[in-house]
Amino acid sequence: ENIMKKKDIKKLSETEMDKNLENLKKDLFNLRFQKNNGQLKNPAKFSETRKNIARIKTLIRGKNA
């Protein structure tokens, strides 16, 4: 799904980054919901999603500087 490597993220255009950021935020919301309901099957996906959000935000900030 949204498992991305650093090198893949760096290749994205700014529009793609924005779109991916929105998708990751939605995923994170759903993961939190699942976690609170005890339905989270893969806890590692939670931290990986958060890291990907941070990576994209960092790259966007770097391009805008």
Textual characterization of the structure:
It is a single chain. With 65 residues, this protein is mainly alpha-helical. It contains 3 helices and no strands. The chain has helices spanning 6-11, 14-36, 43-64. The longest helix has 23 residues, at 14-36. It starts with 5 loop residues before the first helix and ends with a helix. The mean pLDDT is 87.
Give me some keywords for this one.
65 residues; mainly alpha; 3 helices; elongated
One letter per element, helices H and strands E, the order comes to HHH
Largest sheet: none
What's the total number of strands? 0
Please state the average pLDDT score: 87
Question: What structural category arises from helix and sheet content?
Answer: mainly alpha
**What percent strand?**
under 5%
Give unreliable regions as ranges: none
Helix content: over 70%
Which overall shape is indicated by the principal axes computed on the Cα atoms? Answer: elongated
Distance between the termini: 30 Å
By DSSP (H or I, 4+ residues per run), the number of helices equals 3
Instruction: Report Rg.
Output: 13 Å
